[in-house]
Amino acid sequence: MERNGPAGPESRPHYDGAMDHDDGTDLVGCAPCDMTRGRVPLPGGRIHGTPRWLVVHVLGAFGLGALAVVPRRHVVHVAALTGQEAAELGGLLRDVAAVVTALTDPVQVYTCQWSHTGGEAAHVHFVLQPVRRSDMERHPGRLGPALQSAMFDDGDRPDPAAVESFAEQARAEFARQAAGRPTGVEDSS
User: Fold this and answer.
1) pLDDT for 71-127, tens place per residue?
2) Of 27, 181, 44, which is closest to residue 16 (Cα–Cα)?
């Protein structure tokens, strides 16, 4: 894989204007780097972002509405996150879970981090997956990682047009939720 410098906003589909804080680490051939830098198609584009994280729709078979929270820089271990990345993560996971819940009405939103490829550590990303009653009915008795594995084995990926539509709804929901909070006031709960 080849290292590449950060791409400019003009090359980023759905660039959200948040400032990139990366150290120039961008690994060509890394799926999350390639998707978030616009080198490969990303249905739904960038849905939301903070200065250090991006939110995109999952490309895998975890159902429509599964979103991934991906660091803007290439990092392969949670322990290697900067203090600033770690500080942004908790609130962002909560906000993404709220958007997924509002748009999918799930029984639960699984929040997990599996990032390895071919037995090697890979670009960290957190998946927030809506688990619907219909998912559980299709795979009776399989919950948690077993349900995710069954869904992955099924290979049913959402239609790209449906992902585009969901992404637009998610952008609107992020904006709606942000408007409900006074500017500059952090949630203390």
Assistant:
1) 999 999 999 999 999 999 999 999 999 999 999 999 999 999 988 888 889 999 999
2) 44
Full set of structural domains in the chain with CATH: 2-179 (3.30.428.10)
pTM across the whole model: 0.81
Residues with Cβ within 8 Å of 81's Cβ and at least 6 positions away in sequence, in order, are: 71, 75, 89, 124
SS (H, E, C) the chain: CEECCCCCHHHCCCCCCCCCCCCCCCEECCHHHHHHCCCCCCCCCEEEECCCEEEEECCCCCCCCCEEEEECCCCCCHHHCCHHHHHHHHHHHHHHHHHHHHHHCCCEEEEECCCEECCEECCCCEEEEEECHHHHHHCCCCCCHHHHHHHHHHCCCCCHHHHHHHHHHHHHHHHHHHHCCCCCCCCCC
